[in-house]
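Hi Y.,

Following your request, here is the sequence exactly as I used it, all 462 residues.
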Amino acid sequence: QGAGRVLLSESRVALDRLRYHRQRRHLVLSSMRHFAAELRERGDVEVVERRDVRRMADVLGKFDDVVCAEPNGLPARKRLEQHGVNFVPSRQFLTAPDDFAAWATGRRRLVMEDFYREQRRRFDLLLDGQGKPEGGRWNLDRENRKPPRDALTAPAPWLPEEDEIDAGVRRDLDAMGLAEAGQDGPRLWPATHAEARIALDDFVANRLAGFGPWQDAMVSGERWLYHARLSSSLNLWLLDPLEACEAVHDAYRAGDVPLQSAEGFIRQIIGWREYVWGMYWLRGEDWRSDNALGAERPLPEAFWTGKTDAECLRSTLQDVSETAYAHHIQRLMILGNLMLLLGVRPWEAVEWFQASFIDGADWVMAPNAAGMASFADGGVMMTKPYAGGGNYIDRMSTYCTDCRYEPRSCPVTALYWDFMARHAEEFSSNRRMQMPLNTLGRLDPARLAALREQARTWSAAL
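Below is the corresponding structure, written out as tokens. Let me know if you'd prefer a different format.
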């Protein structure tokens, strides 16, 4: 607002920082170029585009008084500060880092649930006339863990159509020859606000009602299920988070969707997303060095190639390769869980998630992959590691039906008990880990030895 010129710089250095998924690079460039086209059509600003930029100084040095919205990551902020760029507050999030820091000050625990309840009150979402939670409870997560039926399907989501801008992006990426992950394919994700709004309306009308109960389900061949597919639109600032929440809130008030679905979605946006954003800035560079469990294994090559005989991992990695996407439970309880059990270096896990996912960003992947999945912060975010064995995967997915391993010989279960044995002393003071530690203590020594040997053999082959 009020700008006479808008500078859009496509940095070759940023595009090549990691081995990014081809579709992620495509979406970022497509959204920038669509935005440039929209500004030109408006006609009230001069649009300055710079492509294939090798040095930021070559661009920024030619302009005075460059102003941009506050970057959403530490690396970008540092680079821009070095070049004298001025910042204005970003409207990409609802909670400024300073406001989150004020909320966190003096608290014994920084639990998302406490933050989420304040957010509900702040934005007057799903409250009754007395300011209490609709339905009597703040969190309906217990109702949102239904295991999948054998034939669980959902309406197909709306998908955008590519245009000449996308064709140009594809030609340019082909010419760059950057090292990349994943497969190219038709653009699956919104690149403009108009497209993001269509995607939001489609979700609310056709899949939101099923999102609540089935949000944790994992079904082979059903990669979207009832999920919103809006995270990339939110992270690219194509969709305002409150706009999305209000659309869901209105659908509940109209009687179109159940409370558990509306609450589950709103909690993800004003609760978890804003909490992760705040935690990222609160801890800053600590995320890069955190390694509470001493995890030192390099990321196995299978996470890049997808070659594995465990169906849960193979199927999820295939989804990531083909779409740059997997939903939050696949990320946490398949990908993140296996990285945790294998002892993968936390920051390697963070960078893999950043590179591989359509919504990857430093601010979101550092707390999620290092803090929540890898427990690298030692319990700042989570009160215990999110570790699970084959029983959870069997209950919440259809993967095990097509897997070569019988439940008793599941390598994930072997890895789980090997992980527990390695860290039993560290976990002994954590009350929430007492049940699995007690079970570990009751395991027949020969059985435990066999499980640990299976874990070593299987993990070495990844």
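The chain has a mean pLDDT of 95.

Thanks again,
Q.
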